[in-house]
Amino acid sequence: MSLVVMKFGGTSVEDATAINRTASIVAGRVAAGKRPVVVVSAMSKVTDQLLACAAAASRGDRTGALALSSRLRSRHRDTAAALVQNPKNCATLQTSIEHEFDALDEILRGLAVILELTPRISDLIVSYGERLSSAMIAQAFRERGLNSVHVDSREVILTDSQFQKAIPLDALIEERCLLKVRPHLDAGLVPVMGGFIGSNEAGITTTLGRGGSDFTGALIGGALRAEAIEIWTDVNGIMTTDPRICPDALRVKVISFEEAAELAYFGAKVLHPATILPAVRRNIPVLVLNSRNPTNEGTRIISLAPHCKSPFKCIAVKKKLTIIDVVASRLLMTHGYLKSIFDIFDKHQCPIDMVSTSEVSVSVTVDSNDKLPAIADDLSKIADVKYEGQKALVCMVGEDIRGQMGISARVFTAIKHVNVRMISQGASEINMSFMIEEEDAEEAVRSLHAAFFQNPDPAIFDIENRLPAAPPLTPSTPSS
Ligand code: ASP
Ligand code: MG
Q1: pLDDT band at 264, cuts 50/70/90?
Q2: Which end of the chain is more exposed for a tag (fewer CB within 10 A), N or C?
Q3: Would you say the pTM of this structure is higher than 0.70?
């Protein structure tokens, strides 16, 4: 049986039009002989709005929280009405939507009395987004002749109890998939499940962390040994770089898991790196596809990508970074010195992007954040500290740079006009990253893209749909 997991993100289910599009995409797969399991996100922006409801209620703004929830109620009610014409089915669906919102409002009222938002309550509130979208979409699919059934993900995705970022329990998920999902597939039905949500072994609702629906898709795909996991979104796949910076960015047809994980880590918004793991472990390809352009082939992410004649696959750029220089004036890199530095970042729960060390100094980069003064304060107890914001990290990823002579020379020649602050070639040997001023980021990316994607390997990059490059940045002429 050719089982595929099809995960649709928030924009692919944002309204009745998008949900209809999603239904035809799924129907197309069924007609092609596939057995889909559909995983959906909450409708776009709903998760943020539910979090806003929770925040308002917990500060005692009961009216504000209920007003926001009432807007969400109308949006779901209207979407359901547009999707389900059969009066009896529509009434059943509307009743269940009203029940869900009544329950949500109860929680919000309670929260406005207790005034304390715990991670556990936050997960419960935010879970309504996927609970509502999945139930509504399952019904919409049935209206369109798809034999679909709603499965509550909380009965399948079992996790530990770390609310807001729960860790899935693989063995139990596999068991539950066989018990709660597989029989529907065997009966020829299309299971529709909410992403992102799960429950601990006591049945208390948990979530997998923001953007967690991809993770749900990969977990289910892994547990059911799917032949592919499709991530349906609103872009044509992974691009060689951000098309807003380089309009001539190319779609990458195929990329390795390792490369995609590096990219995700460095800010390419397409996939969450952890989502990839359950698929990698079982060698299941992940496809990134566009629900607004379903005939487009997207990007295929696989364990071992074919050899590519171009050294790099992608250039990612991450802005709003700060470089912190720690100079060991006193302790001069004694044993345990680095550990004491990293312990300080750890204490402030501040993840580090890049590290470079010399005999006397350590430079690290972090996302600019409001904990920096406190971190600098702690660091200054063991060393001299300077920090500087408005930096950008450019990260070039490609497996085919492994062992290539002269590749750094080519990179730095392409951006010889840009001041480079820090360089790192990761131990993975598939990425080269460097820090520059934020204001130079766009220019640097364009120069690098022009240098490395002039004659791209047609087996790896979609050159047919290439758009013209951006005009070169001309110095502005003073107006007379
Ligand atoms: N709805 C959740 C979020 O916005 C999960 C997801 O869409 O992946 O984070
Ligand atoms: Mg997402």
Answers
A1: confident
A2: C
A3: yes
